[in-house]
Amino acid sequence: MSALSILFFQLHKVDTVFMQTSLLQHPNILQTKQKLKLTAARLVNNHVNLAVTGLSGSGKTAFITSLVNQLIEANEAAHLPFFSVVRESRLIGVKRDIQPNLSFSRFAYEEAMAKLTQTSPEWPASTKGISQVRLKIKYKKSKGLSKYLTEDATLTLDITDYPGEWLLDLPLLDMDYAQWSKHCQGELSDPIRHDLATPFFNAVANLDLNARGDELALQKASELYTQYLIDCQSNGYQLLQPGRFILPGELSGAPVLHFFPITDLQLEQQGIDLNKPLKDSNAELLCRRFKHYKTEVVQPFYKDHFKGFDRQVVLVDCLSALNRGFHSYQDLQKALDWLMGSFQYGSSNILNRLFQPKIDKLVFAASKADHITPEQQTNLVKLLESMLHSVRKQIQFDGVSTESTAVSAIRASKSGLCQQNGESIPVLQGRNEQGAAITLFPGEVPQSCPGPEFWKQQKFEFPKLSPPPDEYTTCSASYQNGSSTRFFTRG
Q1: What is the pTM of this model?
Q2: Can you list the positions of beta strands (E) in 15-54?
Q3: Are 59 and 33 in contact (CB under 8 A)?
Q4: What span, in angstroms and rounded, lies between the C-alpha atoms of 491 and 2?
Q5: Residue 239: how many CB atoms within 10 A of its CB?
Q6: What integer is the mean pLDDT of 162-169?
Q7: Rounded mean pLDDT of 83-93?
Q8: β 105-106/91-97 pair status
């Protein structure tokens, strides 16, 4: 009898015992039963919950649109090298199914395809909140005892799209309001950030924190703080908190987002102890709202959604960070360090204390690989790996398999060679943001971050390309450093 058959047999026996013996209704035994069922589900390859995230502009919507399109329209030309069912011509068909979670938005696949295939193609609208799509994938089995019981199988694939900015809020669960304010104060010491925060500073300079709570004054200041975060994002910064301030989703305008950090100088000048603020004062209201944000917004996101994922793709736009300069690259590095903390499941980690997540395969993908020439894509992967090196080992120690790759979800360029002075130069052909045809060599991608002096002498100028013209009937994709990630099948 196969291990799979034995496991199902054991599960049947466990269910029987649980029904007959009330003594075994102990929480630990119930938990063991649930783990056995989860293991069984993984072994039979019948359901995969794939999450896709990344910071704003990383290409999440384009990636999911391309993936869904490649599966639904799959044929011999499909660009899905990581999916053995397609690679081995065992795919029978794929259809969209009824969305499982009724509280999530429906992933706007049809709208995205309409924008990409119209006369003047446009990129799909970016991610604003959580959305989901469910696919039923019917395929021919290739091996195992179950093949002799039935030749066909159906895999249910749930794809969930959510903003990476929301992941950056996880560390807030280990902070109180005073600690968070001090962290923000450190961020605001950056000269560029400090200048961008001038309107916010002016608004809170004369705010009496000991006075009775003034909701309108706090709302006005929080809106200025939100604008500061948006301005930081426009200037290439990625580590921005709270994440819901930038992408509020259904919380837009809610008082739970009407708080902001205060400086040590303000606390000293007004004689405030944040551990014992005056009752119903502005200071206490700020403390209360920060705590409510943690317990009612951040924590439920992880407990209700994050724990259900078992495959995770994190898209990283390294090229835009290089274009924006050294400060942007450094901030993206810090943001990735914070973001990767979400996948550290050690016994002391906040995630493990709250619940037991089950993500066991994690792919970091450098997006927009079609914006550089093919021979530079290996360097792009190495650049991404250099950014992940410091915290990657801990994730792997915690049992999460990781991989780095470069992807082009929707190929917006064609590569070729151009003769110049008797030499063959690799070039790209595509369309710029205005839709005009261009041919260029975008430049070399560094394998690791250049030093500060390099950025003073020269800049990176990787192009921003428009979607391909309607000569492409379906979305196309290319993958670099492909060790054929088995992302949909177990094992």
Answers
A1: 0.81
A2: 47-54
A3: no
A4: 15
A5: 19
A6: 89
A7: 81
A8: unpaired
